[in-house]
Amino acid sequence: MTPSRLEDLAVFGSTPAFTEPRHVGRPNMPDRERVLELVGEAMDRRWLSNEGPLHEAFQERVRQITGARHCVVVANATLGIQLAARALGMEGEIIMPSFTFVGTPHAVSWIGLEPVFAEIDPRTHTLDPAAVRTAIGPRTGGIVGVHLWGRSAGAEELEAIAEEHDLPLVFDAAHALGCTRAGRPVATLGDASVISFHATKVAGAAEGGAILTDDAELAERLRRMRNFGFVAFDTVEGLATNAKMSEMNAAMGVASLERFEEFVAVNRRNYEGYVAGLQDVPGVEVIDYADGDEHNFHYVVLEVPAAVRDPLIRVLQAERVLARRYFFPGCHRLAPYAPAGASLSATDEVAGRVVTLPTGTAMSADDVARVCAIVRVAMAHADDVVRRLAADPAGLGR
Ligand code: T4K
Prior knowledge:
Helix content is 38%, strand content 15%. It has helices spanning 32-45, 53-66, 77-87, 103-110, 129-135, 155-164, 216-226, 247-258, 260-278, 306-318, 345-351, 365-380, 382-390, and strands spanning 22-23, 70-74, 93-97, 114-118, 140-146, 169-172, 180-181, 184-185, 192-196, 209-213, 230-232, 235-236, 285-286, 300-303, 321-322, 354-357.
């Protein structure tokens, strides 16, 4: 049932609003027949990996959508960030935000680089260029900016800083397929950008990633690095890895991109439904995409007072709305990075008040309205909700 009073909430014993869970990151599904057709063709060809025809088709389509000159498709964005960092000669300390998915710092740490977390601008959730300037030191060997939620505020300033200090600049654009910055495709920012095609992304390949760059020579190097460094049969040019995308993943990717515009349109409808449904709810801000740029609206993120955030997520989860605290608690507080003791008050504050809500093609307009009704009831009685749940503590689901 759709709650309208405090006692209607499932967290206090009523029937949940949804019978089936509503996930953040439920995949947008490509057309099944199309995927099976493409997989069938790959099987008939007996060509299953190593830069096959589907891989090439996917790569070209990503290049067109992103507007970059060169695209290098890889097995996932984590490997993409690693290849870009290596190919650009990053070394030592790499400045990046802590308010990101842990995949960003993991990617560079895994290849022996050291993430140095800089503060975000709490309004935009992206790196604060002034904090990046302060963080630059003698061991700085690169910058990784993150277009969190597909938003890329501050990107030009980061480009200017990178140029001034002669530092390579990679953008983690995992969320930013189809997004622009001041009219420029985000994939053309920095030396290289990396998009994710994970199942949970706006268009997925189950697992997948792509590195975009306008630098032809860099793209060539990246292509060799993703395939063991081979330049000819029996000849490798140097240390490299296996970051190739299979034909099965490329089939999913090609078919997903055929529906990309449809996925974005549904995301936009859902986002607008959330904005309309929550705009007059005191204490709730829906993050803004109204900067005149193109967005994929893949993340619907609320900011609520810190004291209400976890109770609100408990309320939602009890209704089977599996809202998430992306990206709590900030990477600087996660096990591998906490010992460095970074002190990031804006990151802590933002990570303490975000709630990410389900969207995508698994959510109907009615579902969105029902989630808004739950938030509305919880926020109208926020003090009671906080007090009653504090008396009955329980962990949040993973
Ligand atoms: N940089 C940034 C800024 C990123 O956000 C990411 C990935 C990366 C880098 C690295 O990109 P990749 O190397 O992955 O290409 C998920 C994704 O696994 C991860 O790719 C993504 N960011 C992150 C934001 O979300 P988890 O650990 O939160 O996933 P999990 O298992 O909790 O799933 C999320 C929800 O989606 C669940 O409610 C279940 C649902 N789900 C998930 C899958 C895989 C489905 O309904 N079906 C599915 O097939 O990381």
